[in-house]
Amino acid sequence: MSQATEFAKGLEGIVAGETEICCIEQDDLIYRGYDIHDLAENATFEEVSYLLLVGEKPTKAQLKAFADELIGERALPPMVIDLIRNTARLPGAVPMDVLRSAVSVLGHLDEECQDNSPEANLRKSKRLLAKIPTIIGHMQNVIDGRDIVAPNGSLGHAANLLHMMTGRKPTEEETHIIDVSLTLYAEHDYNASTFAARVIAGTLSDMHGAVTGAIAALKGPLHGGANEAAMEMIKEVGARDNVDAFMQRAFTEKRKIMGFGHRVYKNGDHRAPILHALGKAYAQKKGADALKWFEIGERMQAIMMEQKNIHPNVDFPCGMTYFAMGIPVPQYTPIFVAARITGWCAHIMEQHANNRLIRPLSRYTGPAPRKWNA
């Protein structure tokens, strides 16, 4: 029997394709030629979204038109609102599942769903970018038992997301933190969910189908769900004085410490220090109850470096930052979707534009050939 000549578990180290969208190196994370530190400091998420989806930095006129278009597409069809109302409080429905279902239904309602042309794909990308924060906001309103908060056309993308979730206008600092976090999460090369989206798109399936599959992939705690799992772990520790004993017990039990390590980065995730600094500064202003999570987290980071030489990834400070801001833990990964939708859609469009079916080989480890009637 023939077998694949090369094998790498989890496709580690395998180059599976080419992309113009993102470059990950040990010392750099680049979106279409722009370094992540430059973007986090100088660009808004709307600008980064335009860059990823369209391919170039927008002019002021292009940015205004793009932002206005997103504002005009924020509202959800009644059928999707009904879906959220009917599922968001079900015992077995976690927010990522509700979001996945809502995006799937949006595909049924989008007249261009089956059109994979570049022009239609870009329009669908904008609609998904605009509507996903609304899904998240309405979902949280239903979970909290409050009236649904409508999108606010006077607010930018990040501020509107927080406004719909809470019913209050966020501060400038809160808006900035969410805006930067969306930029940091917007794109990351051939990660698991993006690769899943490209595999689906490679069959010439549609944009909504590929995004639905990507959401399912992002849900897992070894990918996007790590920010939720990391914060739940920090809550389990509870206090800085408990960290050392917790970590030693975890090492003894070979428990996975969520929010640490990365398949690509070995010298540290470039995004983590950016979000950690913003989150800790915010927590210091909020007071001891918010700051204690960073004190726990920083001690955990120190132990991981001292004993395992493993750096935190962006999910670790994300959990602490969002928790300090009062964002419900189950919405951390949906907010990740609100950012990564830009990268997913860019990759889906790129796959459709230069497509080849993605079909790797496998190494067979089953029984040797045998006879049914032996």
Provide structural commentary:
This protein has 374 residues and is mainly α. It folds into two domains: 34-219 and 331-353, Citrate Synthase, domain 1, CATH 1.10.580; 226-324, Orthogonal Bundle (Cytochrome p450-Terp, domain 2), CATH 1.10.230.10. It has helices spanning 36-42, 45-54, 60-72, 78-87, 95-109, 118-144, 157-166, 172-185, 192-202, 207-218, 226-237, 243-252, 271-286, 288-308, 315-324, 332-353; strands spanning 22-24, 29-31, 34-35. It is globular, with a radius of gyration of 21 Å. The model has no long low-confidence stretch (mean pLDDT 94).
Give the % helix. 55-70%
Oligomeric organization of the protein chains: single chain
Beta content comes to: under 5%
Q: Could you give the order of strands across the largest sheet?
A: 1-2-3
Tell me the overall shape: globular
> What is the level-2 CATH architecture name of the largest domain?
Orthogonal Bundle
Uncertain segments? none
**Number of contiguous helices:** 16
- What is the rounded distance between the termini? 20 Å
The number of E-state strands comes to 3
The CATH homologous superfamily of the largest domain is named Citrate Synthase, domain 1
CATH class of the largest domain: Mainly Alpha
The sequence of SSEs as H and E is EEEHHHHHHHHHHHHHHHH
**Main β-sheet description:** 3 strands, antiparallel
**In terms of structural class, how would the helical and strand content be classed?**
mainly alpha
As a whole number of angstroms, the C-alpha radius of gyration is 21 Å
- Write down the domain tally: 2
Return the average pLDDT rounded to an integer. Answer: 94
Quote the CATH topology of the largest domain. Answer: Citrate Synthase, domain 1
